[in-house]
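Sample intake — Disease resistance protein RGA2
Collected from: Rhynchospora pubera
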Amino acid sequence: MTGIELLVGGWFASPIIRRVLEKAQKYLGANYELQKNTHEVLETLTRTLVLCQATVEEAEKRMINNSNLTTWLKMLKEAIYDADDVLDDMDANYIKEKTQGKNKVREFASSSLFGLKDIFSPDPSHRNLKRVLDKMVKISDEIPKFVDLVRMNENYGPCNYELSDPRETISLPSEEVGLYGRQEELDLILEIILGPGSGSSKKGGQHYNTYSGLFVIPIVGMGGVGKTALAQAVYNNPEVQQTFETKIWISVSYNLDVLGVMRKINQSFGGYVRVDVNTLEDISRSISSTIAGVRFLVVLDDLFEKIEFKWDIIYTTLSHGLPGSVVLITTQNQAFANRVATLCPIALNPLEWDIFWELFTPTPRTLFTP
């Protein structure tokens, strides 16, 4: 083994990163009339690529023998090729528009790459660029741990230190941050899963719990609006604790595929599948047999695109519990939330200013705590 690139099937990271970086820099350098949103995304992508390139070039000088480093490089490889494809698509779209006479370029624009002057923010090109950027940022967030792994491997040999998702959550709410401005949504969810009269409002109404299937309740909204905090409030509600025989919280790490999520669900339910079993069939059957005759609550926090495409597998498996079982999802994808909800998604909008200000208002405890 002569370098870290050999751990990903002979893939040489630095050259492809440099190529994609050059493409992004060319777009920025020659296309000063890019719309603001697209220009900002390209700038951030460029900075992230520079960071990844510097990290990989340093790592390629070392002798590496660690599966966790391989995993990180594979994720980086996928994201880099994705970025390369998106930039090529942007160039192809420009050529198509130019051919159809919808755009005009100046005479000095001899190259379509340098002649791209208009990337429309609502179009698929911009959305794909933003998607690639989000993926690259998540991967670059792991760089400090990646560097630590390189050093640990160099000093102490192979180790089992695992890369983790910096956004991983737990079911316990923060003692320092309460649930602000979401009581109405909390009461609605409790009424859906427990029946009327639950929650602080104690309102009567439709007894949703007569529903004969599996409840799927998505909490949907942009990042930072309190989706996880609301899910934690539901999960830790005393009535919920008494009603559901089994409750599990799954933080859907971005480096998990549907198989990884199903394994987490199975382990949390106490199901048993040999570690060498890697088929959805076996894991699905284990979960189904474990939850038969059980009313459960499953929280899937921060469900993302890679899992959403195979949601039906998760839903079918979890449908074998008792009627009234609940899957509570947090997601930023409104279309996905609409598709999977058994009643209606719980949409969270940004807090009103007066409620938002409460987050920064000292409480009596903080005022008198020495």
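Post-analysis note: The CA atoms of residues 292 and 321 lie 5 Å apart.
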